[in-house]
## 1
Amino acid sequence: MPVTYTKAEKITDAAAVKQAYKPTHPGIFEVVYAEGDYNSMLVANRDFAKGEVICRVDGTTPGPKRYTSVQVSKDQHIELNSDRDSLTFFYPSSEWEMDQPFPCWCGSEQCIQSVRGARFLSKEIMSRYFVTKHIQESLEDRDRSSA
């Protein structure tokens, strides 16, 4: 699978990066770039119904924990290898501790403001969201050890 999204840590020419960007799913979503460190985001080009499948994620590869990876178990991460990424993705639903915490841009009334991972959020906050099995188990371990 060709990689169509260059994961630039620092964007110094957002216009040039956008011009070189080739979306994997035109018309569904696109990456919006701004100059600065880790300053891009995935934006939907249309509304999606709750529970609707947006697209298949194929061609993932195992990799180390990094700011670009997605945690899929207590000790495994994958790279998505495309521009399919966040779309209002609640990172703590799969990430115990972010490799590169960042400020959230979602604008939700219940926004957590700083995305650091499930480890740093209360049981009450985490109960609002669907979370993966490995995160649920980690939350239970954390809460059991602090009781």
## 2
Amino acid sequence: MERITFERIPKGMVESLMKTESYIKETSLEFGLLELIRLRVSQINKCAYCIDMHYKELKQSGETELRLSTLSVWQETPFFTEKEKATLLFAESLTIINQSEITDSMYKSLTSFYDDETICNLILIVAQINSWNRIVRTLKFIPGNYIVQ
């Protein structure tokens, strides 16, 4: 059972989160990669509601079942591009930063694909989905009801 419904979250808090979402939507990062980041971070954080949401978003956008079902083991598969691998490794490391350092080699691999602005935006994207995961898990939002708009 939900502890606090989405509608009962303070208006200013939701507006701030949605303003960040609007900013993220305007970045140069392609939708599919953005959603892969969100889904992978949500898997790490065991956020069922967000996993349901981002899985459905990816499915609706044409992502393959094979890539969706192997995202949690992406390092062991040939299904992801070098850019996606560098991005996912960064997102995972940033999510579990207390256990995993952002190494110079990891950062250098990002610079092969992204400029400084995009790397800064990646940091924000990972921080934002981590925030959503923590809010949603704490408030116990019920997974399964998300409908792609």
## 3
Amino acid sequence: MFVFPLKDSLILKPLRSGHAPELFELIEHSRPTLRPWMPWTAQMQSTADAEEFIATAARLYADNDAVTAGLWEGERLAGVIGFHEINWRSRSAQIGYWLGASFEGRGIMSLAVRAFVDYAFIELDLNRIEIRCATPNRRSRAVPERMGFVLEGVLRQAEKLDDGYVDHAVYGMLSEEWSAKRPLL
């Protein structure tokens, strides 16, 4: 797994078992902002749950099925980003991400997404990256919009959240498009 410096003290690096307490603490402190969009937070109730998530991420990475990284600001975990699953036949992947509440609004996730898209197209030789966001989640949608992803459509009632079903905006980026846009970002 890579360690990728973004800028200043921001880096992407793999989550390890020893990071479970910090991961759980970040989720716990960020529950009010994560819970409306991330239903998995209801199942993340202990450090053991965080350890299980990290172990699953490591296993999927070892099987070449997914990539998950922690986003670190200095020694503090700020969030998580990853390819949920990599479709090697179609050479595509979907990026998912979340940021701790105290790290929002500073452009950190845009830097991480840019690095992941570079990694996908340059290192993994993928052809397509997709990002799906709940349509009312403006902060999450702003990331692919800033990066020049194309809004390809809306999937109706694509996910069940606590308050009912929510539509997903589907954003896509092709390798050839990224090559043209990247120098402008």
## 4
Amino acid sequence: MIYLLFALALQSQTTIGPVDLYQPLFPRNFAKGDDGTFYILDPEEHQVRHYSTQITRLKTFGGKGEGPGEFSFSSSINYLDGAVYVEDTGFFTLFHDDGKPREKIRKPFDADWFPTGKSWIALKRSKSMQYIELIWLSRDFKQQRILATDLDTSFEGTSFNPEGRPIPPAFSKMRNRMAIADKQRFSIKVFDTHTGTLLHTIKEKVERIPYDREWGEISAKRMLAMLTAYNALDSTPSSFNFPNYFPPIQKLEYTVDDHLIAYGLLRPGRIKPDFAFDLSGKRVPIKGGPEDKIFRVLMQYNGFAYVNIFKNEEVFIQKAQLSELPAILAASKNR
């Protein structure tokens, strides 16, 4: 019965699927404009596709290359202050919101880059690969400030620790707030990304969960097999090194209504939402994260929700009334 309701819901709402879009609907390839229209990056075709609030295609722009309005190895798309940012290996290609080329911005160094529209946030790994710096930079790159340094203990000599990787930062909907977690204890710092200033620090009491060594060994072997398959290791570690306890924070994520959710461990291999905060750092009830195995809420606009659907190994975007969203999400979890 639940599956039938779910199928009928899909038929009754506006949906675009892989016939129209070449598998680019993962959240990092989705950007919402100020007027509710949205942009989809297709890395394979080197294109940006602009859609209306009715999910009809307005235009397509971009191309392969390094010239104005071109990109070759794109990895993400953002919309900020009337500009579309397409990230390439060494630079950002910017477009006006109507698709006309605007400018190209070359990255000053190798890092994971996050534009905010008025500044930049970079996640830079040290040359020794032992720590990661979270760096704030001004729009022209002339000013920079280290906001946080996080040790990366994934590799310690000849030992491998799968729980030693730093937790990626989380950005609010407008990218004007950024949260970074201390992976060893419950401590979350929230920054104003436009100025690089610390707004507040969130702390909570958490239960320490002893590390499951058997699960850790299985996870480490799988990860090593994957890294080896991609030739990502210079040499294979001779042993595994595990902590005594799981990190109290497994992941941070902002919802579409800008509530920050801290995820903790439910059991090995599974995490659950533990705490939620608003932009001021005040504790708020957990509404549930925007992520689900089948759905992810990409945006909310004018009474509608735009939802990412994974069905039969294909990817879609569905538009539904905001009031119907809880039922659709509940149905997806019980399929």
